[in-house]
Write a structure and sequence with these properties.
- The chain has helices at residues 21-35, 47-54, 58-70, 110-116, 139-152, 167-177, 194-206, 221-229, 247-256, 278-291, 348-358, 364-375, 378-404, 430-439, 470-494; strands spanning 74-77, 81-84, 104-106, 125-126, 190-192, 212-217, 233-240, 244-245, 261-265, 295-298, 323-328, 340-343, 410-411, 419-423, 442-443, 445-446, 459-463.
- By secondary structure, the chain is α/β, with parallel strands linked by helices.
- Among the domains are: 21-84, Arc Repressor Mutant, subunit A (Orthogonal Bundle), CATH 1.10.10.10; 137-378, 3-Layer(aba) Sandwich (Aspartate Aminotransferase, domain 2), CATH 3.40.640.
- The strands form 4 sheets. Strands 3, 5, 6, 7, 8, 9, 10, 11 and 12 form a 9-stranded mixed β-sheet that branches. The chain has a 4-stranded antiparallel β-sheet with strand order 13-14-17-16, covered by helices on one side. Strands 1-2 form a two-stranded antiparallel sheet.
- Helix 1 (21-35) crosses helix 3, helix 9 (247-256) runs parallel beside helix 10 and helix 14 crosses helix 15.
- The longest helix has 27 residues, at 378-404.
- The relative contact order is 0.14.
Length: 506
């Protein structure tokens, strides 16, 4: 079902009725919600527009909207307007906390490489890769800013910049970090080619080949790729889909293992969407300080909260410079511009030295274009729109899982970001589903990609960053059908009364 992007046109109110004028307005809007014309998360007409359509006063419209708020049907968002309230879906249970074996292992990415290198057809619907739809990005404005940067800096954009990056970008990033609870100066920031380079530099700074690094389980596979390239071992720890990594398991690991670093996706993590509380973030930093272990924080999804204020970064609780903070605009503005940053704390000199070795500098023109976009206030307006879109798309995918998948399906319920983690019991095999789905031009990310032990055979990740469409709805229906078929085959093959076609008669 396509998203409702425009306000409905309303006919004039009836002249004869026992209701007050604002009650009539409220009833009209309520009927549109109940009929589905206005869906969860849709924006209501502005007060001024509804005033003009219905020929009533602004105070009448405001009273009507307040009445709808009291009825729990709509919600007001500061500096944005009124929206249909997103109701809780009658979803299956969430997955429980993961239970990895907590053994130090070398990082094996052979399966991951095989899956990533598969030659998918051009018409494939990519529900596995955690990439946002470019339709969500302000491409016209970004392209215009890139042109302005090139015209205004005709020589500077073609010469080497400083290793830490362009000062305008670092200044704007420092301002934005205030929303994450961090007081950072521009000279504490190093510009990078996306988050990937940021945590690669951070990992290489605080580890050497053969070292052990603590990670979440399941963990983002690009982190595993970086660890593999650096010859590092992984120690996967239990992780809850809402609360994040287990601190008791981490304390036990730190007390019994030689651990060189810890890597976490702090807010709305990939792939399970967890977001640690402030209390837990503070306790995590205190624990790592106690054992003198650095933390590499990937906060790429931090600005994609659906409700309330942006969650704090773990870096906000860092009192000793032991957190190496990494982020970028790849999930919020443009993955192609390759603009990210690292705030390395006490390790800044080493990170800057490695930056020279690896890439010398980050391209100048994208940095300046992003800095200009940040500075003109357009980024916050864009984020408000993007968050609503991601929330609506996630809700639609959750509803599709409820409608099309087996009743025993478990699924995460992130409060931000754009990925879902699906768990299906009953002997389900996600790799089998991957192979079958590809034949239907659909891709998913099977669970074994997110573990050094190739665990999570019955899980897979789905991307909700693409605009919802009839094609995606059909793809979800197909995935649900394939899942049910697989479970039915396994149930049939395990039945004691089922004979193999090769069985000999008695």
């Amino acid at each position: 079902m396509p998203m409702n992007t425009g306000s409905p046109q309303l006919s004039p109110l009836p002249s004869a009725t026992d209701q007050t004028l604002y009650e009539q307005v409220a009833e009209r809007i309520q009927s549109l919600i109940q009929e589905g014309t206005l869906g969860p998360g849709d924006r209501l007409p502005s007060v001024r527009k509804l005033k003009q359509q219905l020929s009533v006063s602004m105070s009448t419209v405001l009273e009507a909207y307040r009445l709808l708020e009291d009825r729990g049907l709509i919600v007001a968002r500061p500096q944005s307007g009124y929206y249909v309230k997103t109701t809780a879906l009658a979803l299956p249970d969430e997955p429980s906390q993961s239970t990895p074996l907590c053994q130090v292992r070398p990082v094996d990415i052979s399966l991951m490489l095989r899956l990533l290198r598969m030659d998918l057809s051009p018409e494939t619907i990519h529900l596995g890769a955690a990439v946002p739809g470019v339709e969500h990005f302000p491409l016209t404005m970004l392209n215009r800013l890139m042109g302005q940067v090139m015209r205004n800096n005709p020589m500077a954009v073609h010469t080497y910049n400083t290793v830490p990056g362009c000062e305008p970008l670092r200044r704007e990033v420092a301002k934005r970090m205030l929303n994450a609870g961090c007081s950072i100066t521009p000279d504490q920031i190093v510009a990078t080619a996306g988050t990937t380079e940021a945590y690669y530099l951070a990992l290489r700074t605080v580890t050497k080949p053969g070292d052990t690094v603590v990670i979440e389980s399941p963990s983002y596979y690009a982190v595993l790729e970086a660890m593999n390239s650096l010859g590092l071992n992984a120690l996967e720890l239990p992780t809850h889909p809402r609360e994040g990594i287990s601190l008791s398991a981490l304390q036990s690991a730190l007390g019994n293992q030689s651990v060189s670093a810890c890597v976490l996706v702090s807010n709305f993590s990939n792939p399970i969407g967890s977001c640690m509380s402030d209390r837990k973030k503070k306790a995590l930093v205190e624990l790592l300080n106690q054992y003198d272990v650095p933390l590499i924080e990937d906060d790429i999804y931090g600005e994609l909260n659906f409700e309330g204020s942006r969650p704090k970064a773990i870096k906000a609780f860092d009192t000793q410079g032991r957190v190496l903070y990494c982020s970028s605009i790849s999930k919020t503005l443009s993955p192609g511009l390759r603009v990210g940053w690292c705030i390395p704390g006490r390790y800044q000199q080493q990170v800057e030295h490695l930056k020279v070795v690896v890439s010398h500098m980050t391209a100048t023109s994208p940095q300046l274009a992003v800095a200009a976009f940040f500075a003109n206030g357009g980024y916050d307006r864009h984020l408000r729109t993007l968050r609503r879109a991601y929330q609506q798309q996630m809700n639609r995918m959750l509803q599709a899982i409820l409608d099309y998948f087996p009743a025993e399906t478990r699924v995460t319920r992130p409060q931000g970001g754009h990925v879902l983690w699906v768990e299906i019991p009953g002997g389900f095999n996600a790799l089998e589903l991957f192979e079958e789905a590809v034949q239907h031009h659909i891709s998913i990310a099977p669970g074994p990609m997110f573990s050094t032990s190739h665990g999570y055979q019955n899980c897979f990740r789905l991307n909700t960053g693409l605009p919802w469409s009839d094609q995606i709805d059909q793809a979800m229906k197909t995935l649900g059908h394939l899942t049910k078929q697989q479970l039915a085959r396994k149930l049939l093959s395990s039945s004691p009364n089922t004979k193999s076609e090769f069985s000999k008669p008695d």
